[in-house]
Write a structure and sequence with these properties.
Layout lengths: L3 H28 L5 H8 L4 H7 L5 H20 L14 E7 L5 E6 L1 H19 L6 H4 L1 H25 L13 H7 L6 E2 L3 E2 H7 L2 H20 L4 H19 L1 H4 L3 H4 L5 H14 L2 H8 L6 H30 L13 E7 L5 E7 L3 H4 L3 H15 L10 H25 L1 H9 L10
Antiparallel strand pairs: 1-2, 3-4, 5-6
Length: 442
C-alpha cells in the first residue's frame, strides 16, 4: 500500500526532477551558472519561457552518435570482456561474484569488471588526447546539452522497458513487487533484479556504467575546456578531478562489495535508478567542474590544502567504515577491529519462502560511533567538492544539499526496513548505537 506522502513525493520527482536538471544546465549555458537570473528575467518580463527554450541547443545527430557509441562500447566491455584485473592486482576482487540473498531466496552471480572497463576507457581517452586526435578532449562539454536529450531518451526507455518486462517476462516473478499504483511502480520499480540473458543485469550496468565511468571523463573534458579558454587548468579544477576521481576509482575497486549495498540488495529497478543513473548522476554530480569552466577559481594554497585534507579525511572515514563492515561480514565476526574482537548483536529474520536467516550487527569501531558513519565521511567529501568553487554562486553547493537530503533519507528508509526485518533485535541495536550520523548530535 502506498501512503499519500510517498505518492505525492513520487509525482513531484517524476514531474520536476527532469526540469531541475534542465534548469541547472541551462543556467550555466545561458546565465553563467546563476540560479536567480533566469527567474528574475521571467518575473520581470525581460524574457519568456519560449526565449530560453529557443536558445537551448537541440538534439543533434552528432550527439546521438556519440551517445550511442558510448553506451554500446560500455555494454561491450561489460558483457564480452571477462575481468582480468583480479589476476594481477593484489587485493582486488573481480570476476564472477555472488550477490546477496534476494527476498525470494535467490543468489545472483555477477561478472565484476567495472575497474577493467574504467581503465580501458581512460587509456583510450588519453591515447586519443595525446596521440590519435580522433576527437577533441572537449567533446563532452561541447555537446553537453544535446547529450542531455540522449541521456533522457535512454533513461526513460530503460525504465519503461523494465516495467513492461516485469509484467510479461520477469527474471524472477517471486522477487517482483506490485503495489497496484502505476506511478509508484514506475518510479521505484517492480522487478528486483531484471536481467536479459545470464549476465546482463540492469542494476549493475546502469548503476556503474555508463554514468560513473563517464563521471571522470566529464571532469577531464571540463578541464580540457578550461585549458582551451584560459590557457591553464586551475588548482580548483585539479582538486575536483582528483577528489571525485578517487571516489570513482574506489567505487570500481570495491564493485564486488557494492553488491551488498542498498541499491543492489533492497531497491527494485525503476525510473529512480534507470533515469537517475543515466541523467541525474552524470549531470548533477559534475556541477562543480561545469561551474569552474564558466568561473575559473584559483584557490590560495592554504585553502586548497585544507579542502584536499577535508576530502581525503572524508574518504578515509567512508572507506574504513565500509571496510570494517565488509571484514566483519566476510569473517563472520572472527576478526579484529581497532585491535580488539568486535562486539555485535545477533539478529534473525525470515525470507518470503519461510527460511530463517541470522545476521550480526556490529557495534564496534566506527559502527559503534554512529549507525551510518560511512555516510558522514561521504558528506565530508561532498562538501570538499563544493568548496573548490568558492562562494560566488550557490549552484555548486547543490551537491552537498542534495547528498545531505539523500543520505538522511536513506538512513531513515534503511532503518525502517531493518526494523521491519529484525523487529525487537533492531531496537536492541539502536539502544547500543543511539546516533545515526554525527556522534552525540544526530
Amino acid at each position: 500500500e502506498v501512503d499519500w506522502f510517498s505518492l505525492a513525493s513520487i509525482l513531484f520527482l517524476l514531474m520536476f526532477a527532469p526540469l531541475i536538471v534542465y534548469y541547472f544546465i541551462m543556467s550555466c549555458d545561458q546565465y553563467q551558472c546563476s540560479l536567480t537570473d533566469p527567474l528574475i528575467d521571467l518575473l520581470t518580463g525581460n524574457k519568456h519561457l519560449s526565449d530560453i527554450w529557443n536558445k537551448t541547443p537541440t538534439l543533434t545527430y552528432r550527439a546521438a552518435s556519440i551517445y550511442t557509441l558510448w553506451v554500446a562500447f560500455q555494454m561491450l566491455l561489460y558483457l564480452f570482456i571477462p575481468d582480468f584485473c583480479h589476476k594481477f592486482l593484489p587485493g582486488y576482487v573481480g570476476g564472477v561474484q555472488e550477490g546477496a540473498v534476494t527476498p525470494a531466496g535467490v543468489v545472483n552471480k555477477y561478472e565484476i569488471n567495472g575497474l577493467q572497463a574504467w581503465i580501458i576507457t581512460h587509456v583510450l581517452w588519453f591515447a586519443n588526447a595525446y596521440y590519435f586526435h580522433w576527437f577533441s578532449p572537449t567533446i563532452i562539454f561541447d555537446n553537453w546539452i544535446p547529450l542531455l536529450w540522449c541521456a533522457n531518451v535512454l533513461g526513460y526507455a530503460v525504465s519503461t522497458f523494465a516495467m513492461i518486462k516485469s509484467y510479461f517476462f520477469p527474471t524472477n516473478a517471486e522477487d517482483c513487487k506490485f503495489t497496484g499504483n502505476f506511478f509508484y511502480d514506475y518510479m521505484m520499480g517492480i522487478e528486483f533484479n531484471p536481467r536479459i540473458g545470464k549476465w546482463f543485469d540492469f542494476k549493475l550496468f546502469f548503476n556503474g556504467r555508463p554514468g560513473i565511468v563517464a563521471w571522470t571523463l566529464i571532469n577531464l573534458s571540463y578541464a580540457a575546456k578550461q585549458q582551451e579558454l584560459y590557457g591553464q587548468v586551475t588548482n580548483s579544477m585539479i582538486l575536483v578531478n582528483v577528489l571525485q576521481g578517487i571516489y570513482v576509482l574506489d567505487f570500481f575497486w570495491n564493485e564486488a562489495w557494492y553488491l551488498k549495498t542498498i541499491d543492489i540488495c533492497h531497491d527494485h529497478f525503476g525510473w529512480y535508478l534507470g533515469w537517475g543513473d543515466c541523467v541525474w548522476l552524470p549531470y548533477l554530480y559534475t556541477l562543480q567542474g561545469l561551474y569552474l569552466v564558466y568561473h575559473p577559481v584559483q584557490l590560495y594554497t592554504a585553502n586548497a590544502i585544507g579542502i584536499l585534507m577535508l576530502g581525503l579525511i572524508g574518504y578515509y572515514i567512508f572507506r574504513m567504515t565500509n571496510h570494517q563492515k565488509d571484514l566483519f561480514r566476510r569473517t563472520n565476526g572472527n576478526c579484529k577491529i581497532w585491535g580488539k574482537k568486535p562486539e555485535y548483536i545477533e539478529c534473525s529474520y525470515m525470507s518470503v519462502d519461510g527460511t530463517k536467516y541470522y545476521s550480526k550487527l556490529m557495534t564496534s569501531g566506527f559502527w559503534g560511533w554512529a549507525r551510518h558513519f560511512n555516510y558522514t565521511g561521504d558528506l565530508m567529501g561532498s562538501l570538499a567538492y563544493c568548496l573548490t568553487c568558492g562562494f560566488e554562486h550557490i549552484l555548486p553547493y547543490f551537491y552537498i544539499v542534495y547528498m545531505t537530503i539523500l543520505l538522511t533519507h536513506r538512513c531513515i528508509r534503511d532503518e525502517h526496513r531493518c526494523f521491519s526485518k529484525y523487529g525487537k533485535d533492531w531496537k536492541r541495536y539502536t539502544a547500543a548505537v543511539p546516533y545515526r550520523l554525527i556522534p552525540g548530535i544526530f
